[in-house]
Predict the structure.
Amino acid sequence: MKVSQETVCLRSQGDELAGVLFLPEGDHPAPVLIICHGAGEFKENYFELCEVLAGRGVATLAIDMHGHGASAGERYYVNMRQWVADIRAAIDYLLTNPRIDGQRIGAFGLSSGGTAILEAAMVEPRLKALVTLDATVRDSLPWGTALFLKLLVVCGRIKKWLTCRDLRVPLAKFSTGCKMAADPDVEERLQSDPRLRAAFMDFPFPGAEQAFFVDTLSRVSQIAVPTLVLWGEEDKFDSPETGRLLYEALACRKQFHIIQGNGHVGHLDRNRDKVFTLTADWVLRTLV
């Protein structure tokens, strides 16, 4: 199926957000997924997923969240109020496009993007289906790592109070043993990506506190729309146990899949085709 792309510009909380809309061939309005990346990431990492979905008749809008990629905002902030506002701005935009079926809008999110779509679904009735990939929903870090990061948050708040500026920390120097991808080639590509490296060499505290510390799991029972939970079996950032807890806490129509051979970035990893297929199948069942 032929796929077309359109560069779009949204406005969220007074700032401009960058996005790319992928549209499938056809005359009828298409169902659509809003694609939300994780902390420090950017929309381009999802273009392969977008093309696969469009090839199966599902439009996608991949956006750079506030402060990330080509979007405006404080660099690399992870603020769920902002990110939920970004998703709602994306819905507003999609409702103006005649190629999109406004009654069939869903969302896909990785890690902090998964947090954002879950939080959005609690307050945004226009979302009709969700796909979460290794979503951050609880404080699940090892106690030593969590203590270190909470100390950075405290130091960052003190610095912000004194100087009105965040504490910027080169987190990449402290996480050499924690791999994002299970596939070594994918991991090497990620580690050498200058955009990712720039984010994790300049990580803001307390501005990105919610990349690590959230209580979303305690409230997901409020979500009413069908939700697919995907998790990498080899996720070193957050174990599949979190995925099981998320699945059990959901009270909506739901599915849970642990994907062998994938780490925390299943949209890029060894078995990303499995992520693509499960996502497309779920969307075509729940939105179409």
